[in-house]
Design brief:
The chain is an all-alpha fold. It contains six helices and no strands. Helix content is 72%, strand content 0%.
Length: 169
Amino acid sequence: MNMKLKTKVILLSAVATLLLGVLWHFVYDWTGQNRFIGLIFPTNESTWEHMKLVFFPMSISAIYMYKNLKEEYPTILSHILCSIVLGTWFVPILFYSYSGIYGRTCFVADIFVFLLSVLFAHLALWHYAGMPWPNVCFYFGVILYMLQLISFFWFTYHPGTWNIFTDLS
């Protein structure tokens, strides 16, 4: 297996995801708070909406990763999809861990939550890429990804009452 290629592609994806994620934060306001745009871009300062900063930018970089790694790593798509969901859910795990321990939120810590979530997702992908997965894992990855995508579409404009949906601005 070509470790140099895998490392280069996943590292470039991590950088692209970080850069896109930073821009992603502002697009909804830049478009005059367009409701359609809000389906994929954060519409408020809730933890749920900030999970989009990992999910959608990494989904875009996934195209690049899949194109460059599919020959060398035939199961890469399921690994990519699972790592996107993993990184997405790392956002609330880290956020509620630090804010629960610290007792309040902190802008700098929030930036680190985003950074660590993206890096964790890519590190997990780097580690697991190349490991053979049975076909059932492919479907598991697709189902997890699609459930997360549908959940974003639904809960953006129909948020629940849980804290994850509370606008923290």
